[in-house]
Q: What sequence folds into this?
DNA sequence: GGTCAATACTTTATCGATAAAATTAATTTT
DNA sequence: AAAATTAATTTTATCGATAAAGTATTGACC
């Protein structure tokens, strides 16, 4: 399960650092799909010994971001249109289910969190306008989507949702690296936020589902070499 | 993701062995919930060095069977009625969805597999009659349930289903270790199998959902100290 | 008697070294 | 020259040792 932003008080370890950095490098596409991950090389790059590196890779394999082939090491997970569709279909299911539960259970604190994270994202949207979304935008974007489902009581649902969110994010960042995208994403976020705070589950879920699906469609339709 | 019964040709490694054995020991309850897993001890018990053991534990943590607390090692994941309900609810969703897809996509080979694995399970059911289900029954039982969804095309759905299957199995084996259970489980399997081969999705899913839910209820109602 | 801190003891996380396996290159055979 | 061997090189998986962190113990002090 993704341990990147776990709020536990567990002390940070070299494995954690390697995991977090490797994860970000895979999600951003800096480590491209299919790339062989040689431990010797990663050791120098991430400043850790073989054990922490291998442990981090084991975790990432659990998240489906890398794959492990016994006796022949690790590589970055491949991508394909077929898998994108699989991920998206399941993610829509999980996201909407989690959102419904969050709307059901969310309290004032949750509302405040949703509003605040939306605000931070939209301010960044304004400022960046037509620019490339950078690391910070990705961070805020993730925070916003996390805030929506943060009031969902189901640990397991959120766990799986998190994994699929990461998967989707990787596809999006791989495909839209320089494709601008002509959708009004900021507006979609706004509508989702409003419907959510209105406690209009049906509408919020429909909007969120469309948001996820349309992003996937944009990825699939971007000129993109795969399979 | 669970790598226990992956059909890839990847050579088996010490980490794989440790993973498989630890997993079985946790599912069977030999390693009880909350137990501290000291690497030094596991090293001698499973005959491997610290690195393979730690790697195996990292994988298990991804499956939610152990938890890792930075700088203070690993322990077997705790259990609670609340989590059992969470797991069950989500598992019903996944199992039925996967079964529906399998019924939709399954070919003759799949039908043969379902029938064969049901047969092996039911033969064992007859022979054991009222006895404790042992390791072999668990194996056959798992094979049967796996066969049902084996024709499902969605990798990710099956991945998550597998994880939740393991979780459910642990709860069941923990709770029903000596409680006999007065349900006709073999009969339930038969009905599920028949509805599935009849390609009656609605009925098969209803039966499977009830099967999963009733097992969970039996676990919850067994005299069982937890939370 | 209970609290606190200094000390001794475990355990974890991590490194560096190495045998086994896989890959690549070189060489021979058909 | 293509295929098959064999040799050389790289890479993985794994072990044993160790520093850093955590936990338990002891004993002084109020």
A:
């Amino acid at each position: 399960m993704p341990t990147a932003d776990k709020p536990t008080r567990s002390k940070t370890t070299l494995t954690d650092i390697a995991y977090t950095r490797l994860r970000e490098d895979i999600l951003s596409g800096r480590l491209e799909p299919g790339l062989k991950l040689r431990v010797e090389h990663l050791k120098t790059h991430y400043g850790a010994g073989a054990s922490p590196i291998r442990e981090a890779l084991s975790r990432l394999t659990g998240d489906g971001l890398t794959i492990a082939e016994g006796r022949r090491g690790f590589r970055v997970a491949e991508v394909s249109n077929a898998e994108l569709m699989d991920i998206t279909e399941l993610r829509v299911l999980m996201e909407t289910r989690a959102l419904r539960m969050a709307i059901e259970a969310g309290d004032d604190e949750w509302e405040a969190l949703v509003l605040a994270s939306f605000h931070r994202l939209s301010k960044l949207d304004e400022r960046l306008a037509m620019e490339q979304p950078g690391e910070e935008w990705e961070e805020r974007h993730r925070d916003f989507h996390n805030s929506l489902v943060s009031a969902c009581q189901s640990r397991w649902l959120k766990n799986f949702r998190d994994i699929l969110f990461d998967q989707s994010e990787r596809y999006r960042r791989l495909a839209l690296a320089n494709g601008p995208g002509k959708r009004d994403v900021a507006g979609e976020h706004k509508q989702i936020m409003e419907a959510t705070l209105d406690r209009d589950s049906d509408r919020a879920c429909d909007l969120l589902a469309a948001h996820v699906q349309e992003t996937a469609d944009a990825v699939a339709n971007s000129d993109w070499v795969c399979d």
Q: What stands out?
A: Confidence is low (pLDDT under 50) at residues 3-8 of chain B. The first strand of chain B starts at residue 36 and ends at 37. Residues 13-15, 48-52, 55, 71-72 of chain B lie near DNA strand D (CB under 10 Å from a C1').
